[in-house]
Amino acid sequence: MKTILQQVNRKLIVIASLVILIISVAGTLPTRQNGLYKNLKILPQDITKEALDKIMDVEFSGGLGVKCNYCHAKEQGTDSLDFASDANTKKDEARDMMNITMKINSQNFEVKQPLIGDPGMVITCYTCHRGNYYPEQMKKDSVANINWLK
Ligand code: HEC
Ligand code: HEC
């Protein structure tokens, strides 16, 4: 007949082997793939390099008439840009604008699944910005140019 101690030991051995099994299986699984980029809060995590490059180059830089460094801060002590950093406040302003742009598309133009960079978008950064980072200034300039309004 088994003593209580032997029964407890048996249970412990079963639990211990299960734990070891689980740990070893988990170790063989691939680590969760987070995509290519480190700090996307609005764009899809699994966005391709091609799609992201197009948004940054055509939609953002082209739409606002700026270069990458308008929104992206420099990597400390170097001349290159740290694209994942949020140190440049324009980047978060751009995120607000991304949300506004998606909202206008879904609420006012019936775009079912608004995504920045998607060809189905009716309103883009360019619709308002027209290659100018500050649309309000553009408005003032164009009004100032109409002499008979002065
Ligand atoms: C108008 C502002 C703006 C401009 C101009 C801009 N970007 Fe961005 N960029 C952003 C924002 C905002 C994000 C983060 C998007 C998000 O949170 O989903 C981002 C994210 C990125 C990322 C992903 C970084 C990471 O690991 O999370 C890369 C790479 C990048 N930009 C490259 C560029 C390049 C190259 C240019 C110039 C051709 C450029 N950007 C121009 C606003 C801008
Ligand atoms: C519906 C019109 C509209 C759309 C669409 C729009 N913007 Fe704007 N944006 C504005 C206006 C107006 C301002 C000036 C806001 C102010 O004066 O406070 C502005 C300001 C900004 C600024 C700050 C400029 C500065 O230096 O003060 C950034 C950055 C910006 N927009 C990025 C974007 C990006 C990126 C997109 C596309 C995802 C976009 N905007 C789409 C109207 C728009």
Q: What tags apply to this protein structure?
A:
150 residues, mainly alpha, binds heme C, single chain, 2 domains
Topology diagram in text:
Layout: H1 4-28, H2 49-64, H3 89-109, H4 125-129, H5 135-145
Bound molecules: heme C (2 copies).
In short:
With 150 residues, the protein is an all-alpha fold. It has helices spanning 4-28, 49-64, 89-109, 125-129, 135-145. It folds into 2 domains: 1-29; 49-149, no CATH class.
Can you walk through the features of this model?
With 150 residues, the chain is an all-alpha fold. The chain has 2 domains: 29 residues; 101 residues, no CATH class. Helix content is 52%, strand content 0%. It has 5 helices and no strands. The model has no long low-confidence stretch (mean pLDDT 86). Bound molecules: heme C (2 copies). One heme C binds next to α2 and α3.
DSSP strand (E) fraction? Answer: under 5%
User: Tally the helices: what do you get?
Assistant: 5
Q: Tell me the radius of gyration.
A: 27 Å
Q: How many DSSP E strands?
A: 0
In which range does the helix fraction lie? 40-55%
Ligands present: heme C
The pLDDT mean sits at 86
Output the helix-strand order: HHHHH
Give the CA-CA distance, first to last residue.
107 Å
Q: What is the approximate shape?
A: elongated
Structural class, by secondary structure, is mainly alpha
Low-confidence stretches: none
- How many separate domains make up the residues? 2
Largest sheet: none
Oligomer: single chain
